[in-house]
Amino acid sequence: MVNKPSHNEEAYFANIELERRKKRQDEQERKKSNMLPNMQMKCPKCDRELVKSIYLDFTINKCEACKGVWVDSERLDQLTTKNS
Ligand SMILES: [Zn+2]
């Protein structure tokens, strides 16, 4: 007779795989939401909420704590072409 792996063990490994997949999905969702300009962004440096402000015609995200400014690359391109 062949020794089959116990059912419990299979369920256990299936669970691990499921958790791993879910974690990866969560991370991707988080990355996606970080890229949306209308979502509340957090400073990657000090984890404070960024304050939206308008620079020229563009919305930028400022960090009051470290004075960092976050602009998505698309806007940055528009800003640089506008100034040149
Ligand atoms: Zn900051």
What features would you describe in this structure?
The chain is an alpha+beta fold. The chain has two domains: 1-35; 37-84. Helix content is 48%, strand content 14%. It has two helices and three strands. A three-stranded antiparallel sheet has the order 1-2-3, with no helix packed on it. The protein is elongated and about 80 Å long. The mean pLDDT is 82. Bound molecules: zinc ion. Residues 43, 45-46, 48, 63, 65-66, 68 line the site of zinc ion (ZN).
**Domain tally:** 2
Bound small molecules, by name, code or SMILES, are: zinc ion
Strand order of the largest sheet: 1-2-3
Task: Report the end-to-end length measured between terminal Cα atoms.
Answer: 79 Å
Kindly estimate the percentage of residues that lie in beta strands according to DSSP. 5-15%
